[in-house]
């Protein structure tokens, strides 16, 4: 059974908020202390300390000095040191990431808890904290551990549990989805999902809040208030974007047996600095990531077309291939005189995408191993400024 991550907002009282802040503070202190200890060991040429060795030294050298360590659960500093050990291995041993940095108060505050955790209706029972309410009904499971994090002035809890697969009834066997900027998704059945453009709509307000923050004196209470307002606005933008993508991906996975999407080179598209902001605001990576796990939940299949499949250059009626500039939003076929919206034509071609090895070794969910370099260069797809169409109705 697949593991599902569940995250929801907590509704703590003032006493619980103080306990949350203490747990996050202890986790941050333990992490920074362990990071400084590891740097000293590397400077001396000593062996890199493990999470167990760091915790033993923490109990012997640090915990006895600071009484507030005993006011929180022992799981919080333990997990912080485990995270530090993983970060050091990724940097020093495996060379995966950059050098670990010291954590700052109020920036990505979070902590970990395990032990006697219970769920009852719409509340959690957490060790050393007690019963905490949430804003929605919770799944009837018993999580082994939870992670509590803060975004702006709100606290969230997340955990994992096993989910039984739900084979929902399908209304369509196959659908092609062409994603873009103005229209987030154009489907081969004619459904068009508008892009809400959360960042663009709130950009002026974000700039104003940022200027207000820059004018405040550092260390003052007014600066803290201005910083909180800015964080709330950023959180609002993120939630709008996630809400749109979640509704779209849930509708696709629940109601369609096979979903065909493009394998866009998003990192390459972001190099276009004129469109980088608009492309990043769409959440293309998140769209594909959510489809990958939701198709497993609801008994559907995700097919990823080859990155250089010319869906915008092929005629959906006669399969004639012709080049078309990005400024032209209507596809006019020179062979059969078909006139159709560019994005709808691309989505229909994606629905007709073959799942066999008929396209030079292309695979249903993977990359092609053999491609002619000239055809690759000619058929690179960089969809921008998508023409808006009449939006269809979606059901979550």
Automatic annotation (TrEMBL):
Domain Probable transposase IS891/IS1136/IS1341: 158-272
InterPro entries the record matches: Cas12f1-like_TNB, Transposase, Transposase_put_HTH
Coiled coil: 192-219
Residue span of region Disordered: 358-378
Family matches, as Pfam families: Cas12f1-like_TNB, HTH_OrfB_IS605, OrfB_IS605
Domain Transposase putative helix-turn-helix: 5-47
Location of the Cas12f1-like TNB domain: 284-350
Keyword set, alphabetical order: Coiled coil, DNA recombination, DNA-binding, Metal-binding, Transposition, Zinc
Family membership noted in the UniProt record: In the C-terminal section; belongs to the transposase 35 family.
Protein name: Transposase
């Amino acid at each position: 059974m697949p593991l599902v991550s569940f995250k929801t907002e907590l509704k703590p009282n003032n006493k619980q908020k103080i306990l949350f802040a203490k747990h996050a503070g202890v986790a941050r202190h333990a992490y920074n202390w362990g990071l400084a200890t590891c740097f000293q060991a590397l400077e001396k040429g000593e062996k890199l300390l493990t999470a167990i060795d760091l915790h033993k030294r923490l109990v012997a050298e640090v915990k006895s000095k600071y009484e507030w360590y005993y006011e929180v659960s022992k799981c919080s500093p333990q997990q912080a040191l485990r995270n530090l050990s993983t970060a050091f291995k990724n940097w020093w041993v495996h060379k995966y990431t950059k050098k670990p940095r010291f954590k700052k108060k109020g920036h990505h505050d979070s902590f970990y808890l395990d032990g006697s955790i219970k769920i009852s209706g719409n509340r959690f029972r957490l060790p050393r904290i007690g019963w905490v309410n949430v804003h929605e009904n919770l799944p009837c499971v018993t999580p082994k551990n939870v992670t509590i994090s803060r975004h702006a002035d709100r606290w969230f809890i997340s955990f994992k549990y096993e989910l039984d697969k739900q084979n929902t009834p399908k209304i369509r066997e196959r659908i092609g989805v062409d994603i873009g900027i103005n229209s987030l998704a154009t489907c081969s059945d004619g459904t068009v999902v508008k892009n809400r453009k959360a960042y663009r709509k709130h950009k002026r307000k974000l700039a104003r809040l940022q200027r207000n923050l820059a004018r405040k004196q550092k260390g003052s209470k007014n600066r803290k208030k201005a910083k909180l307002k800015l964080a709330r606005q950023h959180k609002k933008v993120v939630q709008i974007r996630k809400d749109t993508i979640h509704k779209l991906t849930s509708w696709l996975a629940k109601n369609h047996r096979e979903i065909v999407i493009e394998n866009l080179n998003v990192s390459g598209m972001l190099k276009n600095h004129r469109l980088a902001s608009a492309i990043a605001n769409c959440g293309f990576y998140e769209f594909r990531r959510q489809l990958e796990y939701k198709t497993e939940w609801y008994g559907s299949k995700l097919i990823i077309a080859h990155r250089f499949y010319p869906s915008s250059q092929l005629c959906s009626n006669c399969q004639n291939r012709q080049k078309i500039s990005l400024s032209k939003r209507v596809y006019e076929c020179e062979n059969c005189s078909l006139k159709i919206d560019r994005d709808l034509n691309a989505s229909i071609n994606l629905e007709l995408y073959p799942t066999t090895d008929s396209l030079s070794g292309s695979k249903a969910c993977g990359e092609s191993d053999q491609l002619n370099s000239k055809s690759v260069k000619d058929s690179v797809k960089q969809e921008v400024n998508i023409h808006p169409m009449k939006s269809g109705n979606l059901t979550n």
